[in-house]
Amino acid sequence: MRPSIMLFGDSITEESFGEGGWGAHLANHYSRSADVVLRGYSGYNTRWASLVADRAFSAIPASAAVAAVTVFFGANDASLPDRASAFQHVPLPEYRDNLRAICALLRARWPSAALILVTPPPVDERGRVRFPRNGDASGLPERTNEAAGRYARACVEVARQRGLRAIDLWSRMQEFPGWETAFLRDGLHLTPTGNRLLFEEVVFALRDANLSLEALPADLPLCSDIDPDNAVRCFEEE
Q1: What are phi and psi of 162, to 5 degrees?
Q2: What are the backbone dihedrals phi and psi of residue 33, each rounded to the nearest 5 degrees, phi first?
């Protein structure tokens, strides 16, 4: 059975199948080995995601060969409670609890799937001010990098406590000079370069879970393995 890799997250996941998106890169990378299935919900925080997670995956049966799920929330939870995006804010303790609940649901549904938590990315506050949200005229960003960092650390902590893999995108991006504009197009969402970095990090995490391209069999025989004089035998199921 051809395995699936599920992507569950907010807008950074929803738009990941766009041109140059990290999900599109992933689908291309595993084009002959696995189906990459998108479940991205722009604007969602973990509170809302935990309420709809079961419905979001209802079309994927528990018997499906789900090899891995990325869980990528936190950018909206980390919105400041006294700024323009306050309606998306989720307090840090609840964020932890919601992540645990989402992971428990996914683990119960697909016990053998590798769960990979992705932290929110860093925030370029100047970039956010240049792209004001919800008519905010204060001149202040509705998110800060400091707040995003607290949620990123909480995400890594939940992964460690649950024995799961984590991609610390917040820390990883800030290792590079000029990350603010190299990786983020509006102070939060990813540029093609930022998408490429996240794609590479996801591939590393999947490799660590023994789900590398080399470890997964190709779906149906490769053209080079087909005997043109006896193609029927090549396509017989073992």
Answers
A1: -95, 0
A2: -125, -30
**AA letter at 45:** N
Angle (CA) 34-38-42 rounded to 5° is: 160
For residue range 202-222, what is the model confidence (pLDDT) as tens digits?
A: 999 999 999 999 999 887 767
d(CA 167, CA 155): 9
Tokens 């043109």 found at: 228
Q: Give the amino acid at 175.
A: E
Amino acid at 196: R
Pick one of 3.30.980.10, 3.40.50.970, 3.40.50.1110, 3.90.1010.10 as the CATH number of 4-234. 3.40.50.1110
**Can you state the angle between helices 92-109 and 145-162, rounded to 10 degrees?**
40
Q: Determine the pLDDT at residue 137.
A: 64
H helix intervals, 131-215: 145-162, 169-173, 179-182, 192-208
pLDDT of residue 131: 75
End-to-end CA distance of the chain: 13
Beta bridge partners of 190: 184
- Name the residues annotated as catalytic: 11, 186, 189
Q: What's the one-letter identity of residue 184?
A: L
Phi/psi-derived region of residue 176, left when phi > 0, alpha when psi is between -120 and 50, beta in every other case: beta
